[in-house]
Amino acid sequence: MIYDISRPLSPAAAVYPGDTPVSLTETMAMRRGDACNVTAFTMSAHAGTHIDAPRHCADGAPGIDAAPLDALVGPARVVSLAATGAITLDAVERWPLEGVRRLLLHTPASETPYDEFDPGFACFTPDAAEWLARSGVRLIGTDAPSVDEASSHELPVHHVFLSRGIAIVENLCLRGVPDGDYELIALPLKLVGGDAAPARVILRTL
Which domains does the chain carry? Predict the structure, then answer.
């Protein structure tokens, strides 16, 4: 079975406050006599389901075109968290993560409609992020818009993960996906030097 855990992209898609919204413009249309239909689009690289690159938080760091594909494809574990707010060190130490290299967090944010931005999402504390980095995790996925709290300007959790080469996948939708182990395929657009890129992300049952 395949689960598509990507959020849809349309002009209605919610983006981080102040970020560039999604827009679609027909540049050719068969109904107007053109040979085919062609659409141009503009959007933030962080709109919808996307993968952050180290360059997101460090000038001169690798862009999304250099993302290690072996980190983005492979076994992954989905873990549910019922509460919102801070995901603390005490919490992550209790999760069954032995041998897990790709972790996807299923929170109430999966129930947030794709056209709404809810700032009250679950996010990691820096010490929890440090613990996950030391545990050998290579990819962190969340259904929240960010691994940091919505009001953060310093983005300490991003810095922890990205400085250690841990891929960050944000704005997933894990509604209806049971906890457990899957094969993850998370492939970003190959935007040269990009600080992030939209991605189509799927889970396949093992």
Answer: 2-205 (3.50.30.50)
